[in-house]
Design brief:
- The protein is mainly alpha-helical and 457 residues long.
- It is built from 19 helices and no strands.
- The N and C termini lie far apart (49 Å).
Length: 457
Amino acid sequence: MEAGRERWGSKFGFLAAAVGAAIGLGNIWGFPYRMGENGGFAFLLVYVALTAVAGIPMLACELAIGRMTRSGADGAFRALSKRFRYVGLLAVGAAFLVTGFYNVLGGYCVRYFVFNLTALLGANMPDAEAAFESFVLDTRQVSVYSAVFAAAVLAIVSFGVSGGIEKFSKFAMPALTLLLVAVVIRALTLDGAEEGLRFMFDPDLTPLIEDPLGVITTAGEQMFFSLSLGVGCMIIYGSYLPSGENIMRSATVIAVVDGATALLAGMAVLPAAFALGGEGAQMSGPALLFVTMQRVFDEMGRAGAAFGVLFYALTVAAAVSSGVSFVEVAVSFAVERAAPRRVNRTAAAAVATAASMLLSLLVASDALGLAESTAPFGGSWMAVVDITAEGIMIPLCSLCTALAAAYELKPERIEREIERGGGKIGRKGLFRFALRVAAPAVMLIVLWGQIQNIVNS
């Protein structure tokens, strides 16, 4: 191991941190609304299949690349590949863009936690839709809450890998699970919630038959973003792994827990949305989380405020856990690029946070498109940054990672690193098929679908 390089303090600490990187707003918010827009069960089926054939192999591959090189994404690709040496920079850029809009969404979550806490203490609750519009149009207030969220992430990252990220994750992930289960139980007891469950689990494949490209594109985008692939998070987390860690088992555990959490989030949000009015409920974008769910809590009275506090505490924890991993990518980049000169970790994290906040101010400026916007294509800056990062850069980076592993690094080298910790790949032919064919095919479909969406918008 590289002398002086930080490492995880325990196996559980690593898994908690990696699961935390995967479980973010992509699960609590993104999964339910994408499932709601893409046919329910049909989307779920494709999501699970893509996770099995592409997600787990790519997750194991990124962890192995990190441990093999003891570097973040930029250093890893510069060390391993001439043709793909700039892929690491692409990953760092994607992580930066994601952090820019993540600060804003995290700020929304913090605001709604406070909002429900004041309601629990007796404050009157305004109409959910009017309150959301009023909040997002108040750029100064959004900026303040975004800065509070970013400062919380900065504080955790500043304490280092084991002292900050690991300690937070070991506490936050079990707490997040308990909060999510509590919200699911309450959501399933609402009148009309069974319609949401039927939507999620009734084996109707009509949406997949009618729009296969749309469902596969969205499920693939959700799967890669949810697992934090293509942004360097898993490479840097893998670089802190001890040599004896079983990478394949860890990758499987991370993917299974991530998928289970996404499913629980769907069971918390979609039945509640259907109970509110099904077709009439706002099922897409931030409105699902901050209008539809808030309206559900409002209709429960004082008890609803208590569940609102729980739910938005859950979203804050999920957002922070992923936000930490994105900032860690930038910190690793700064530290490694400065070597052999030493860079203060806190200073690097502060600079990265300040830079991301400048982007966040731009994202917040047009209130999700409700205010006049200077964003291209007639959309909002949130949509532009999201499409650029999630829709283009992340799948492109994942595609290049798979191609580099399959055709330049060679699968055998990746396999040896995975098995160095006692892990067994099982059928290596399937693993190589995933790197050479399945993962690149999924990424090409996602990229093509996103290009089509941009052209048709």
